[in-house]
């Protein structure tokens, strides 16, 4: 059982930046850590993923603006979000899956955090 706890987010003005953090109880080699987001009335969508021991993957909406990174010593995964837009407003969830994959669908992931709200105002 992997526990995930997100932090960060809050209210940001358009064009601003914020960083989300996800502390995991463990991150095993080959495990994929990812960030998903869900806006009201919308399906949960992948934002970015990082495979422990592998590479990163981004949704088109995140490319060039968001950056996912991992601090293995702290079992923490970060999502740096720059040039934020109102359409980035959503609840952001940290997820962990047992396989090394490139982002994938929510069904691929086994463990989820409770989510953290990001609101971008224009």
Describe the structure.
With 122 residues, this protein is mainly beta. The protein has strands at 4-8, 10-13, 18-24, 32-38, 45-51, 56-58, 66-71, 76-81, 90-97, 111-112, 116-121. Strand 5 and strand 6 (56-58) form a beta hairpin.
* Terminal CA distance: 40 Å
Beta-strand segment tally? 11
Mean pLDDT: 94
What is the H/E string?
A: EEEEEEEEEEE
Radius of gyration, in angstroms, nearest whole number: 13 Å
Shape: globular
Task: Give the helix/strand class.
Answer: mainly beta
Tell me briefly what this model is.
0% of the residues lie in helices and 50% in strands.
Topology readout:
Layout: E1 4-8, E2 10-13, E3 18-24, E4 32-38, E5 45-51, E6 56-58, E7 66-71, E8 76-81, E9 90-97, E10 111-112, E11 116-121
Parallel strand pairs: 2-11
Antiparallel strand pairs: 1-3, 3-8, 4-5, 4-9, 5-6, 7-8, 9-10, 9-11
List keywords for this structure.
122 residues; mainly beta; seven-stranded mixed sheet; four-stranded antiparallel sheet; 0% helix
